Amino acid sequence: MSVLTPDGTPLATDVCLPDGDRPRPAVLIRTPYGRDAHRAELRGWAAHGFAALAQDVRGRHGSPGEWHPYRDHERTDGAAAVAWVRAQTWSNGEVVAVGASYAAYCALVTAPDAPGAAPGPVHREGVPDAVIAAVPALGLTETAREPGGPERLWARAGWWAAHGDRSDSDPDALERALADDPRLLEHLPVARLAERLATGLGRELPSWPRLWADRQRGRLVALGSAARLPLLAVGGTRDPFAEDTVALWRGWGGPARLLLGPWGHRLTADRSAPARARVNLGALYVRWTRAALAGRLEPTRHGAIALGDSGRWHSTHRAVSPPETERRWPFGSPTGLRLLHGAEFRADPERPVRSDDLAVPVDGGPADRCLLLSPPLPRPLDLAGAAVARINATADTPSADWAVRLTALDPSGRADPLAFGIVRRTGPPGEAAEITVPLGTLGRRLPAGTRLRAEIAGHHFPAHARNPHTGDDPVTATRLAPSRRTVNPRGSALHLPVVARRRYVEPVPEICR
Question: CA 127, CA 113: separation in Å to the nearest integer?
Answer without folding.
Answer: 7
